[in-house]
Amino acid sequence: MGFAIEERFTTGYTLACWLLGELGRIELIQVPEPKIPADPFNDEQYVGFYHISFDLTGKTESLSTWLEQLQCKTIIKILLPPQQQMIGNSVYEVAFIADPDGSPLELLAYLGQTI
Q1: pLDDT tens, position by position, 3-18
Q2: Interior CA angle at 114 toward 112 and 115, to 5°?
Q3: Which pLDDT does position 52 carry in this prediction?
Q4: What is the DSSP-derived secondary structure letter of residue 104?
Q5: pLDDT of residue 85
Q6: Mean pLDDT over residues 54-62, rounded?
Q7: DSSP result, 30-70
Q8: Whole-angstrom Cα distance, residue 26 to residue 89?
């Protein structure tokens, strides 16, 4: 997704880094010995970090095309193929992929308003 490590640091007993990319900065924190659920994406009772969302509005005409281009560069696991979703009065194209650790990443693109 075009992110590069900007800074690595520690915070308390955890390791952390900032990743800088075209869409902004992400802060990642590694907690020693985390207790990760077997499948947070499909666990309706899961509480805690669920996913990161990337808004690709204006970056691509279609999430399907964007994912096809990404698949030409690397292996990705698609958790939910692109589909339209109503959020408030707006229509978005939404998809989920897994990062290398299996955590869900949401991709969305604004398609327009409803009346």
Answers
A1: 888 878 776 677 878 7
A2: 140
A3: 79
A4: E
A5: 86
A6: 87
A7: EPSS----S-TTT-TT--S---EEEE-BTTBS-HHHHHHHH
A8: 28
Stated as kind and residue range, the H or E segment containing 106 is strand 104-113
pLDDT, residue 15, reads: 80
Q: Residue 29: enclosing H or E segment and its boundaries?
A: strand 24-30
H or E stretch covering 98? strand 90-98
pTM of the complete model: 0.62
The domains found in the chain, sorted by start residue, are: 1-34 (no CATH), 48-115 (3.10.180.10)
Strands 77-87 and 90-98: antiparallel
Tokens 């805690």, residue located? 48
Quickly state the pLDDT bin for 45 (edges 50, 70, 90).
low
> What is the three-state SS of 65-81?
HHHHHHHHHCCCEEEEE
Are 83 and 64 in contact, with CB atoms under 8 Å apart?
no
Q: Which residue has the tokens 């690595």?
A: 8
Q: Are 89 and 114 in contact (CB under 8 A)?
A: yes
